[in-house]
Task: structure prediction
Amino acid sequence: MYDPKSLKAEEFINHEEILETLAYAEKNKSNVELIDKIIAKAKKRKGLTHREAAVLLDCDIKEKNDEIFALAEQIKKDFYGNRIVMFAPLYLSNYCINGCVYCPYHLKNKHIARKKLTQEEIKREVIALQDMGHKRLALETGEDPQNNPIEYVLESIKTIYGIKHKNGAIRRVNVNIAATTVENYRKLKEAGIGTYILFQETYHKGSYEKLHPTGPKHNYAYHTEAMDRAMEGGIDDVGLGVLFGLELYRYEFAGLLMHAEHLEAVHGVGPHTISVPRVKKADDIDPSTFDNGIDDNTFAKIVACIRISVPYTGMIISTRENAKCRERLLHLGISQISGGSKTSVGGYAEPEPEDECSEQFDVSDSRTLDQVVAWLMEKGYIPSFCTACYREGRTGDRFMSLCKAGQIQNCCHPNALMTLKEYLEDYASPETRKLGDALIIKELDNIPNEKVRQIVQERLGKIEAGERDFRF
Ligand code: SF4
Ligand code: SF4
Result:
């Protein structure tokens, strides 16, 4: 039985409900009257149900699809303006006891170099990331209770927050580790993590079990119910995601939105972020062996439909995608991107030797952070290094209620300008700095409140004089 309030995976991600949703969407994909009604509802910016969203995803009428894309762009602008939040992944260890068939870290891969960073190595990596200008990290580790116990992750978080090098600081550590216990989630919360991210990979139970043949991750229910345990452990910002290409995308899309509805129904707060990775080439992994790959146009439609279905949820895209694809998706709804990323264990402080490759997937966007920042500004975006909400305690339902009241924008825009200014002062190349300073002057005029504009102007001067870390 489908029940969004249930705590049982197979009831809140209910297979029959998904099949019925897909049949309903298929039946109505040319139903103009219904599609118009759903688009009108989406225009109210309160989101859509998974059934409504599935109809829009299937819609095959060109004019209606143009409307859907235009609405996604408009909602993106209204909620996120032209700001793009920057982050970088930091891989701590690629030891893993799972058998995920799409990931090169799977246990049976005997030729990939296995590495685990020591605390000293983490320091070097973090200093290198700080020297690039990053303030926000996503920690990644494989699942291995012997090599990567929770104590190791907690110690690493402490190390990362403790490093103050020149004007650098990591101000928000998001964590992407395997599904774990309420007790461990509580420890992560106490360690001061930002978002807990866990990709579902696929919502289709049968496929999930085939794709995860061995190891603790094989347990579909334990994995799917992880966010509920995380919230029980006090983590109120959680990040969902599926790995597109493993299963039929329509199925994943419905499952993803049902998961978001479940979190809202049970905990009163939906996901903080949704990530949209696609299967990529990697050591031991050939993406063509997964026959559910999606083309760029379908991918763009998925992003647009997620954007209008959950307007308050940030959307993340990584360097798995190339610059061209990223640019298109930025218009349609993406609010966070990584830049200058390494997907190997180590590699920021010194490049990995070729015969010791430990990366999780091939990076399609290999530009430096400075190049990505300059590129974003040339395209009219404000790269933001803001981490203010988490540090001001605006998480979970406090964040969502501010966001739903449209208040977040009064913080985001000024914070973006001030953190960009810090970046320009401390890390940018002369060309990027020139571009950025001009952009800041222009964007100051877009702060509607005169008092706030004045404060920002004063603070920009103080940043030039060497002070750091202002926020609203
Ligand atoms: S996806 Fe995660 S759990 Fe699976 S093999 Fe890779 S690192 Fe391990
Ligand atoms: S003010 Fe909050 S929501 Fe806005 S960019 Fe900063 S951290 Fe994100």
In short: The first strand starts at residue 83 and ends at 93. Residues 82-366 form a domain with the TIM Barrel fold (CATH 3.20.20.70). The pocket of iron/sulfur cluster (ligand 1) is lined by residues 96, 98, 100, 103, 105-106, 142-143, 178, 217 (CB under 6 Å). Residues 401 and 407 are 9 Å apart (CA to CA).
